[in-house]
Structure formats: structure tokens, C-alpha cells
Amino acid sequence: MEKYDIIVIGGGAAGLLAAGRAAELGAKVLIIEKMERPGRKLLITGKGRCNITNIAPIEAFLEHIYPNPDFVRQAFNVFFASDIIDLLNKFGVPTVIERGGRVFPKSNSARDVVDALVKYVKRYNVQIIQGARVTQVNTANKKATGIDYIHSNQTKTVISDRVILCTGGCSYPATGSSGDGYKIAGELGHTIVKPLPSLVALEVSDKNVKELEGLNLRNVTATVLLNNKKQQSLFGEMLFETFGLDGPIILSLSRFVVEKLQNKANKISINIDLKPALDEAQLEARLLRDFNTLGRKPIGIAFKELLPQQLISFFINRLGIEPFKPCSQISAKERQAIIHLLKNFEFEITGYRPFTEAIITAGGISTKEIDPKTMQSKLIENLYFAGEIIDLDADTGGYNLQIAWSTAILAATSATQQKNE
Q: pLDDT digit string (tens) for 7-18?
């Protein structure tokens, strides 16, 4: 029966990097990957462009991570944004920095990132078994001793002193992230914080929202209302879908929303300020000026300078004003209703899209049961975790992938050092 120094379960972002680093440090490494090719989910990150990381300093970076950002501080100190950029550059992937400090491959191709990581593991003779599903991590006296896996309908066992579990979460299960790692860790006694979709689009009660499909709003502020009380707010860009709300600021707010929707008694809305740069007094002055100028022209014309064309009809219907009513006949009460709606374009949230559409998974293996200095399990010696399987998630902008990179390097380094002691 073949023996390896380290077995890495999962050949995604965290798994490939962990395997490459462990092998680079001298370990004999095996990757077991469920899919026929490694890096399947990495290929679709950043809409196929792969938002590798973000150049924000560590303290600012941690502000984008939930629910326990301090857990990854040590991992970030060991391996951070400049390190993954340097490693990818070394393997032929130059990078560029875009708005918000986001880092992408210069080619705009996630395939180049995957190919670079595969080159990395091959350079150091990592063996990869593809199309194989790990069924359990074997233990003796609370120590990992290897794994069982199924390949070509045959169950096989591999012996190893160290195992790194990098199977990802539940998002985009077609890429292999179907929650297998939670089952494996749970059977070993680990607490699994309920996995929920995160960075996910939200569904609304207003069925007429389908009229706005494809409408992209820039420079707006979206605020979450929980039982009519304001919670989180974000300024930026959002998108309408047939079912509801999507786009960068909605995705970032979704973590809070999805969590609160678990309590069916909660009433949750998203309130969109369509004109955050103008206060109500400024809006009223503008409307008065426009209405006086337009005179008997229909009210719809007054909105052409205020709103995108696709939004005007929907907006007027929300107001309940006759669309052909002359501007000169708009009452003070109607004018106040217009101002209110411009500042409070509200949608009741009824649900969220499934894991198949979620960018990331919130929840996972409790960080209370993982040593942040090594990524080793506190319950099972010689078992390590890295990536999305851990109960950590972050906003959009390259933050989630950096968690995967950093925890992978720390886990691999720790496992290899422990092997050599």
C-alpha cells in the first residue's frame, strides 16, 4: 500500500497551492480530486477573469471578512497578496490592479491561473488522482492516518501522516464543491456551522421587477431594513434580474440578509437611494425647476434626466401617478411622494438564490476547532484545513480567494514542518 507524506483532499485553489507548497518544501504529496480536472471552480471566479486578490493592507482586508476575521491574521502574516502575485508571476501570469484594489491576471483569463497552479504542483512532482471521491479520513488514537477513496468503482486506501482537507463549500456544486468535506469533518467530530449561500442574488416580492431585468444602476446606495430598522448600507453598483436584485453591493449585503432570513419572523427589505448625492431639499428644488420649465408636458418627460429610461415606467407605476399628467399639475403632495421614492426605492426580500448560483458559502467548520497558527484541527492531530471549507467568507473583491491562498500555505507549511520534526 503506497504511502505519502501529505494527502491533499481537493484540487481547487486551496488544494493546488497547499500541495505545491508542501512538495516544494520536500514532502511527497498526493492530491485527490473529485472532478476530472483540477481547478474547475477557479475557472469561473470573477466571471471567468479570476479576481486573484486585493492590494488592501491587512487591517483593511480583515474588515471585509466574516464572522471571525482575526482567525486569518496569522495566515495573512505568513502569505499575503504580494506573495500570491509573485508566485503567479513566477509561473507566467502577470497581473494588473483594477478599481478597488482588485487584482486580475493581465490576460483576463482564469484559465491562466489554473494552468500556473498545475505547473507549480507538477514542477515538484505532486501526484494527482482525478475523478476520485474521498469517503473518509482514517484515524487512530485521534490522529489522521490516511484516507479511503472511490475511483473507477473501487474503494482504495492511502496511508499518510498528514491530511489537508480543501474540498470547498457548497456553492457551484457542478464544479465539485458539493459539501463533501463537511460530512468528512463532521464524522470526525467537528462542528459544522450551517452552510448558507453568500454573495448571492436576492429575490423580491414585487413580480413586476422582471420589467427591470438587465438594468444596471451605478452610484446608488442600498440599505438593508430589518423589521423596518436600518442595518447595513453600501454605495456602488447593482443590477436587476427577473427575480429581484443582484450586482456588487447586493451581493455584499446578501450575507447579512440570508442569515436574517433564516428567522421566518423577520421582515427584510432593501431600500435603494437612487440619488444619494442629493438631499431632499436639493431634489425638491430641482423638481420645482424642472416642472416649471416643462409646464404642460407629461410627468414622464421630467424623469428622463433623473432616471434610466428602463426605470421610468416602473417608477411612475409605483408612484400611482397618471403617466401623462402635466408637470404643471403635480401637487405638492405628489412632489413629496416623488422625492420620497427617489430616496427610498424599496423592495421586500422574500428569499435568495440557491447554492448553484452563490459565489461563496458562508458557514463551515467552526474556527473554534482549528488552530489559527497552523490550520491544524484541535480534535484530530495531523488533520489540517484550508479554504472555503472553514467558517470564513468575505465580500467581493478578491478577499475570498486570498483566504484560500493564505490558509493553504499555512496548512502546508505547518504540516510539512511537523513531518520533519
A: 999 999 999 999
* Cα gap 186→167, rounded to integer Å: 13
Band of residue 307 on the pLDDT scale cut at 50, 70, 90 = very high
Q: Which residues of 37-55 are buried (b: 16+ CB within 10 A; e: fewer)?
A: ebbbbbbebbeebbbbbbb
Question: What's the CATH code, domain 3-198+361-420?
Answer: 3.50.50.60
Q: What is the pLDDT of residue 172?
A: 87
- Phi then psi for residue 61, to 5 deg, are -60, -45
> What pTM was estimated for this model as a whole?
0.93
Region 207-232: mean pLDDT is: 97
Mean pLDDT score, 180-201: 97
How far from chain centre, in Å, is Cα 28?
32
Residue 107 has pLDDT above 80, yes or no: yes
147 beta partners: 137, 158
57: number of Cβ within 10 Å: 12
Q: Could you state, in order of their start, the residue ranges of all structural domains in the chain?
A: 3-198+361-420, 201-352
